[in-house]
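pasting input
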Amino acid sequence: MLHRDEIIKRLQIYVEQQVLDGRSHGVDEDTPLLEWGIINSMEMVRLLAFLREQFQVDIPPDKMVAAHFANLASIADLVLKTASEQRV
Amino acid sequence: MNLHHLLLESARKWPDNIAVQDAQKSYSYREMDTLAGQLASALAARGVHPGDRVGIWLEKSALTLAMMQGALRLHAVYVPLDPLSPPARIEAIIRDCGIRMLCTSPQRAELLSSRKELAELRYLFPEEAMAAERALIAIPAADDDLAYILYTSGSTGTPKGVCISHRNALSFVNWAIEELRATSADRFSNHAPFHFDLSVLDIYGAFAVGAAVLLIPEGISYMPVQLIEFLQTAKPTIWYSVPSVLTLMLEQGNLLEHELPALRVLLFAGEPFPIKHLRRLYQHWPGVRFLNLYGPTETNVCTFYEVTHIADDETAPVPIGRACSGDQVWGQKEDGTPIQPGETGELMVSGPTVMLGYWGKEPHGKRPYPTGDLVTLEPDGNYRYLGRRDHMVKVRGYRIEIGDIEAALLAHPAISATAVLTYGEGISARLAAFISCNESEPPSLLELKKHCAQRLPRYMIIDEVHPLPSLPFTRNGKIDRLALKTMLTQRSEDHVTQR
């Protein structure tokens, strides 16, 4: 599995380029994604597909709670945790 | 009869029936009655008097519902506040209707504590209130007394408080339970948040007949897999939501692959249901009744249409139907006369569900309420919704005054002019802002989302921004929204081709 920093980096690029307008720089690991309406209910589906494709993780339904998607850091932790559980 | 009598009566008749099921546990009518009594007692002990507005800024739970009931038992007025709205918006509402007591969590209270204008505001945290003695208070209210206030988007940037009386709400609820032939064996799902008027049916429809209301947590309200899991485990007999949610479960959750034997009525409202999705559901569940409900917050539900047939080549959404809840409705032409079949006019509503008025404004009185919705009358007597007369839009069932978002964007120092438009339908509806700026570098989408998030409810945060050197104007000096709309359609088509 990738290093946490690398996951955050890829997520940051995804959010800046694919979710936002490409001119939005400065998304960092603490940017409140849900609170600022960056990841909304409609973007969530796309984000889950991105996680599957980029990191080969399928987020189980019981993990899909707001706390896990609050910012890039929490998403990266979720990816790492899910990946380690999938391997077992 | 008052709204709080429904729970009291059902607690007497069916004390052991499940009244509310939230994410944590189930509560019987007896337990809900006790909770509501304790909370009424706690509110009274803190000086809440009849007629006072009690704000409720909490996520959905049985306790939140008990708060609402507790306020009503004191003949106070409850004001449900969007748990996803920022402190600035909450402050605007608190000040608008003079809320002096706010039921909320310690964390949320902290967000308001530094606001100078709210220095006098008092708080009640539900957990601590549960220690109170159960009080045997239930002060009767007159039918036309104010029961609750629902805040909706206002065109000038200030939210509007729609004042609903006991009679207003009960006229609709009584019509609905009869039409649905609801009984104490029913299980009402509750998808809508409590500050959204769709929730009135779920909560009070259940309380009126001793049925259960099953609360769907805000966190999963647009998560198709979890919603379907909820449907399978909670087994509602009556489902009510905006069409977008049903479309989402259909498209992204394979809704039709799951058996839902308990479901007997499916109600939808808030926006037109794209007919191709409705047709699939309707054909798949022949034993389920499908009802389209219609009505702005100001009139509750004033018309309904039961789907009995959808032709294979039908492309238009189903009609909004005919009057219900004891109301009269008609389409009115520009010259003030009612429309005839085939003609177009504005839908007018008169009757017991029409609101008392907006908080702080003149009472609405007995006048008919002009909905701002354009309708046509079909030969069979059903009304069909055509569109809006003004700049109000619907995004996933939420009504939004475009002026509300534009006012927030104009508060940004770099923006000199803006026009906000929506495009796309149902679940893919998006809010796009065109801006022109007085600085060389226009603010990014990230910056504007942050800016909106500090001022607006979350469902009003823009999805895209398009900077222009200047906005196009029509010959009479208004922003040319049609030209902008064309620009948007063009861009989204280009976008699709690129993909």
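fyi Chain A has a mean pLDDT of 91.
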